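Hey, can you fold this one?
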Amino acid sequence: MTLKEHFIQAYVSRGNVYMSLNTERGYKMSKRDYCRALHYNPTNLSAHVNLGIALQSYGKMNEGWKQFTSAIKIDPKCHLALEARSIVNLQMGHLFGAFCDINSAVELHPTPTMLTNRGVVQQYMKDPANAMKDFQQAIEADPTYSLAYFNAANLYFNMRLFEKALKYYDAAVKNCIDDEGAVLNRAIAKVLLKDNAGALVDFDAAISLNPFAAHSYFNRGNLHLAMGENIKAEEDYRKALSLQPKDSASYSQLAVALGRQFKKVEALDNYKRAIKLNER
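Sure. Predicted structure:
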């Protein structure tokens, strides 16, 4: 590697550090560094791909797509660019383009991550059979890859096969104990399987992992409400609203919890808030 190449790579590496800060300033600084790297070497794949990811992360999908496309034109076998462009295509609703890109990426680099991502695309294309086939292939390739279990569980959940979903959520949590999404979804599956005690344990765990997720409090509140624990339900709905003040569903459910405690005036006020938010 020449001195110039080291110099260019330093810009890319510093850009990556800035991007990892996940702040507005970090985004601007990372974009500047990636653009500097491309100024010195317009064919640098890492700079194109990372700049594309930075643009995508800040909602600039078309600009991100162009950077991934530039990388693919430079190297048609750049599986990272193909995977990234597939994700952008999916986010923009271009399902066929997303499938073509991720399929090419899988052919070049058939890792558990790529297989799982193709499974997700196929799920969006309403092809659950092939989606599940990809998730299972990913699990076979790496039996510890929690994301494949999680996506397989979600697919079973959507098919209302809750016992199978629970089995895969268990595997996802076993392989990644701090996966808030898997713990929360497992709690919901347990509710539907009438395991209220187990569901409460999982709701508590999900909230411990992320105490700022309004939907976790909302779902736990629903369980408390179904169990007749109206005061606990009220507390959870109020917490959810403190985190997400414009959620009409939380106002509506809070009204139910208050009504069951004969707090009719306050219940009516929350119903009105829910209706007002829904009318916007």
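The CA atoms of residues 77 and 179 lie 32 Å apart. Let me know if you want another pass with a different chain boundary.
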